[in-house]
Amino acid sequence: MKNAWSDMSEKTRKDVFFFSEEYMDFLDAAKTEREACAYFTSLAENEGFVDFDDVISGKIDFKPGLKVIKNIHNKSFIAAIIGTEDPENGLKIVGSHIDSPRLDFKPRPYYEDSGIGYIKTHYYGGIKKYQWVTIPLSIHGIVIKKDGSYVDISIGEKDSDPVFTISDLLPHLSQEQIEQPVSKFIPAENLNIISGSLCFDTSDDEKDPLKKCLEDYFKKEYDIDPDELLTAEFECVPAFKARDLGFDRSLIAAYGQDDRICAYSAFRALLDVKEIPQKTCICYCSDKEEIGSVGNTGAQSYALSNFIAELCNFAHPDTAFISLRRCLANTKLLSADVTAAFDPTYANAYDKTNAAFCGKGLAVQKYTGARGKSSASDANAEYLAEVVNLFTENGIPWQINEMGRTDLGGGGTIAQYMANLGMSVIDCGTPILSMHAPYEISSKADLYYTYKGYSAFFNS
Length: 460
Fold this sequence. Notes:
The protein is α/β, with parallel strands linked by helices. A hairpin with a 5-residue loop joins strand 11 and strand 12. The chain contains eleven helices and 22 strands. It has two domains: 10-100 and 255-459, Zn peptidases (Aminopeptidase), CATH 3.40.630.10; 102-238, Aminopeptidase i, Domain 2. Helix content is 28%, strand content 23%. It has a nine-stranded mixed sheet with strand order 1-2-3-13-4-14-20-16-18, sandwiched between helices. A six-stranded antiparallel sheet has the order 8-7-10-5-6-9. The chain has a three-stranded antiparallel sheet with strand order 11-12-22. The chain has helices at residues 10-29, 33-46, 52-56, 182-185, 209-222, 257-271, 303-315, 320-330, 381-393, 415-419, 444-459; strands spanning 50-51, 67-72, 76-81, 92-97, 102-113, 116-124, 137-144, 150-155, 192-196, 233-238, 243-245, 251-254, 281-286, 332-335, 339-340, 362-365, 369-370, 398-400, 410-411, 424-429, 431-432, 440-443.
């Protein structure tokens, strides 16, 4: 496999770096699934996309070329450009996810011990817990007010903001700690975020100074009453900014690249569809993938199929049910999710001859899953050939891989749930180093060719 940089023209190299800058701006602005939905919604509206609910209600006429968006509980997102063909002939979908591993507040999170305020957390998704201590953390979330309005919260991203962190035991006293296996080195119940200490330096008779301190902060900064905090949704994420990595700036280091790198690439590719397509093109950004694609915003829900059912109902109002089934069976989908990039420091974890590599282009996986292909979607050879031939014809560097040694583990994507609907599905995304870590690494060349690959798919 050639390095994707090797045959790159000077113009393309400039395009790569420009696209990467825009992508890094997105990462800094969208560190949670809610923020990603809001970012995509705003960008789509600026490009002339309209709310699909207004189309369903008859306020806007349904016709080829119409650009629509569907926001699903502010946590997952669908954007589509309506094609000229009958939906029964199938759709073109690029499906990704916009949730990432993080730390969520527990329902009753606040407590004080020895003059320090803490926030209890519950980790979300697969993480190595020891990676989340002694790094700067920010708090993002939403508070629903009594009048039904909501307030977006972001603390720790601005240079003028405070940050938060989780303490660790000093090396001088860690002899017992370091004898523990890595999985127990930092127990989940130790992932308690330091929230302050000044409010405990008080001479009054306040029974719960931490609670009073936090209530006063949210009232002053956000005009939020204490009882409105009870239903708040708060997530803790790394406060790192997306940065160029390396002397040559060829890599990107950032939080949340799994899987916002594919979601952003897919959305930008959809925006590049300038002519009215034959088949309706859809960018689907799901939620909850990191915990099994569950819930009413996950890929196992009916959210996407409900959207497609509405498309079929416009075309065949008298036979919408069977039209939906035909549509799903004829639909082609790229499951846009990252894969593990080969890391020579940990070479024993991989089958090097079947690994994906940073800087060698878009990675295609015929199947994912764990060990004996458990929880996998195994694409058929016909569809695999169709997809890789499309990339080759459009000059997209691509590589085929699987994730790690067979018996060591593996991973899943939304592919299996889409395939269960009858679609032709294959996994296709960007190789990532340090996946699920607070600071993940991608190649700018791979990012760009992921975007170009999805664009070729939509425009084919």
